[in-house]
Amino acid sequence: IPSPTGSITPKNVTVVAGTDLVLTCRLGSNLAQALWTFEGRALADEQALVLHDARLRALVVPGAGAQHSGTYRCFSEERGARLGGEVYRVAVL
């Protein structure tokens, strides 16, 4: 049941420090682009590696460390319209 605020329930993800963090973002179409934020700020290309495939976009952070713990959000953007996607709460142990 969707919440009245339209928010998305975050998925909790735990990874071991030094391993790769992989988060997926399912998009509405193959024309859409995945946009990622970390703690509410857009992720710069040098901060993470975004792997692409036709419908499933993945954010890959090689060798994750404690500084990568936090909230990640994926948006699907197509023709100027932005739709909220998955939200992840990541803990790096």
From TrEMBL:
<dbReference type="InterPro" id="IPR007110">
    <property type="entry name" value="Ig-like_dom"/>
</dbReference>
<dbReference type="InterPro" id="IPR003599">
    <property type="entry name" value="Ig_sub"/>
</dbReference>
<feature type="domain" description="Ig-like">
    <location>
        <begin position="4"/>
        <end position="74"/>
    </location>
</feature>
<protein>
    <submittedName>
        <fullName>SEM4C protein</fullName>
    </submittedName>
</protein>
<dbReference type="InterPro" id="IPR013783">
    <property type="entry name" value="Ig-like_fold"/>
</dbReference>
<dbReference type="Pfam" id="PF13927">
    <property type="entry name" value="Ig_3"/>
</dbReference>
<dbReference type="InterPro" id="IPR036179">
    <property type="entry name" value="Ig-like_dom_sf"/>
</dbReference>
